Each structure stands twice: as C-alpha cells, then as structure tokens.
Recover the amino acids of this structure.
C-alpha cells in the first residue's frame, strides 16, 4: 500500500469493540506516534519532572511523532498484539476492520468448525472423566 493513499477512518463500531483502556500517554504501535492527553500535570507527575522536560524537548524536535489530544485520557486497545490508539490519524486500525469484515464468512466457517471440534473433544473428555470416576468408586 502506498503511503500516499490515505486510509479511511475505522468505524465507530470497530473502535468501540477494540477500546479497552485509556491512558494519559500512549504509543500507537500501528504507526509509532505517541499520543498525549491534555492533562500536562498528570503526565508530568507520571513521568517525573526531569523526564517530562525531556519529553517537551523531544516534542519540539520531533513534532510529527507526537499527537496532542483534546481529551484527558487517550482511548486505546490491543489488536494483532499491538497497541492501537483510537482516533489515531494513521487510521491503520481500518486495515484490521476491513480484513475482519471482508473475511466474515471465512471467520464464521472457522468458528463453527473449531467449536464443533472442541465440543467433540469436550464430550470425549467428559466420558473419560466419568469412566475414571466410576473406576475409583
């Protein structure tokens, strides 16, 4: 995919499904940008004064790597083993949404097949456990 093509924003439903936490400062591991909530005092208390001043310097030197948010807590979740920041302008979360949605029938077949197999194995395990219990009594 070309970097020149802007990704569509993920749907609100997908973002809601992914969101499970909020942080005053969080890195989007889908693009590398660090998002900062609007409570500078909380960020300074979290980092300590020395690290906070270092962060301020880094933001001035590399403004593209940091996104200052309007909210105090920045929402995020995990997908594919990575932190995904909700509302990140990279919109890379939409790649996962598109994969899931476009593969929904494959996923449905997989879930059905897998749960049928696990149910069969669970029934076999229950039968074995009942035989063991009978042999002990």
């Amino acid at each position: 995919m070309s970097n020149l093509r802007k990704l569509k924003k993920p749907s609100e439903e997908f973002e809601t499904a992914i969101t499970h936490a909020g942080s005053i400062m969080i890195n989007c591991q889908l693009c590398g940008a660090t998002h900062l909530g609007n409570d500078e005092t909380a960020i300074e208390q979290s980092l300590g004064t020395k690290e906070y001043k270092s962060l301020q310097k880094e933001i001035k030197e590399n403004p593209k790597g940091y996104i200052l948010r309007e909210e105090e807590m920045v929402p995020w979740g995990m997908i594919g083993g990575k932190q995904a920041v909700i509302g990140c302008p990279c919109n890379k979360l939409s790649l996962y949404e598109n994969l899931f949605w476009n593969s929904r029938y494959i996923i449905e077949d997989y879930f059905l097949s897998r749960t049928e197999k696990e149910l069969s194995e669970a029934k076999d395990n229950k039968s074995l456990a009942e035989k063991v219990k009978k042999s002990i009594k």
Observations:
- The helical segments are 12-18, 40-47, 49-61, 93-102, 104-136.
- Residues 13-88 form one domain.
